[in-house]
């Protein structure tokens, strides 16, 4: 099976429209899918008339084909070369029972081809198909333009974005998050509902931090696996002034955490990063968390489970690592800029000049010598998608906010992992975050994927999603 998954393709047809429209559409859509290297499952032209879906028998045949490939189909593309049969499309999806995103495309008519031999009426047919999908309780995605030709460059972008929506939905419905340790006592902000997450297919696997530290303490610097992980860490980032003893501690902890991830087949983790770790073990876990996030196994600090859920969703949407950050400081008197900060666990993709260091703020309470393992580095200018998923227990819902801005190269003289963000109407966003009880943690991703996340989280996951705009 292709790891990216395949699209099921339904080509709608209605018998009193020209047959050649269906044949042409089938060839044109397949050509576009193959051009974009997208695998597809579609009826053969011998299975039904021209490989289209019109009658209930056609729907049965197409549904059977989809069922046979259910494990690889991540979404369905509905193609309407003419008005199409509204029931045929809906019945195919209902019989197949795939529960995947559906993109509805309709062909445009040409003004000089509105005679009986060449007219399509797809504009009207799309409305009817969507009406039936709505009646059947099937969720679907619309193209930005009501009708669009498959060879239109804009449709290529529609397909790429739709596949990203499919990745997010498929990934979240089978997500497994490891929660390592208890949240820091002073952080009510990261409390969440496991039960609400489980209702949406998201499982949380817990482990006591003492178990992790106990296993790490039983390892020695002479163990081959510790040496291997130490080599990996040294290859990942400059050690700076980190002492040998601290590097060994970091490597041993890296071994055990990776074993925990592998043993439980986890996709992401959220870790109790202070203060028990520093007091009882003598280092920070940031370096390991950074490596995991860089390797697309996002890891959030302070046992922020819905924070790492947000990281994973953004990662699926963009195909690149995410980072959990604090909405931390104003940037001078610029109302649309702020400082994003954390002690030091961002993926290396955000830190081109990364160095293993310590955590001065945390060090004031646990001793700086016990905080080696935090990373130091500045994030350069890039695109920015930001957002946060949270469980709202009083309302019994999962909610989120998302938006886009930019990361800038503005001067920033401080330590840790740091960035400057510019967000239109930032003050309005902060009003929304505070009034709706969101956490001080937010996730950043170097992409422009807010629209993809809005469609995936809101339409398909059924969550309450706010997308921030300059005018909001």
Outline the structure in words:
With 472 residues, this protein is an alpha/beta fold. It has a 6-stranded antiparallel beta barrel. Strands 2-1-3-4-5 form a 5-stranded parallel beta sheet, with helices on both faces. Helix 2 runs parallel beside helix 3, helix 7 crosses helix 9 and helix 8 packs across helix 9. The relative contact order is 0.10. The chain folds into 2 domains: 167 residues, Rossmann fold (3-Layer(aba) Sandwich); 292 residues, L-fucose Isomerase, Chain A, domain 2 (3-Layer(aba) Sandwich), CATH 3.40.275.10. The model has no long low-confidence stretch (mean pLDDT 96). The protein contains 15 helices and 18 strands.
SSE layout and pairings?
Blueprint: E1 6-11, H1 19-35, E2 39-42, H2 56-68, E3 73-80, H3 86-96, E4 102-106, H4 122-136, E5 141-142, H5 153-172, E6 176-180, H6 194-199, E7 203-207, H7 209-217, H8 224-236, H9 244-263, E8 268-271, H10 276-280, H11 286-294, E9 299-301, H12 305-318, E10 322-331, E11 334-342, E12 355-357, H13 360-366, E13 374-378, E14 382-392, E15 397-408, E16 417-422, H14 426-435, E17 441-445, H15 450-460, E18 464-467
Parallel strand pairs: 1-2, 1-3, 3-4, 4-5, 6-7, 6-8, 8-9, 13-16, 15-18
Antiparallel strand pairs: 10-11, 10-17, 11-16, 12-13, 14-15, 14-17, 15-16
Notable features of this structure?
472 residues, alpha/beta, Rossmann fold, L-fucose Isomerase, Chain A, domain 2, 6-stranded antiparallel beta barrel, 5-stranded parallel sheet, 18 strands, 38% helix, elongated
Outline of the structure:
With 472 residues, the chain is an alpha/beta fold. The chain is built from 15 helices and 18 strands.
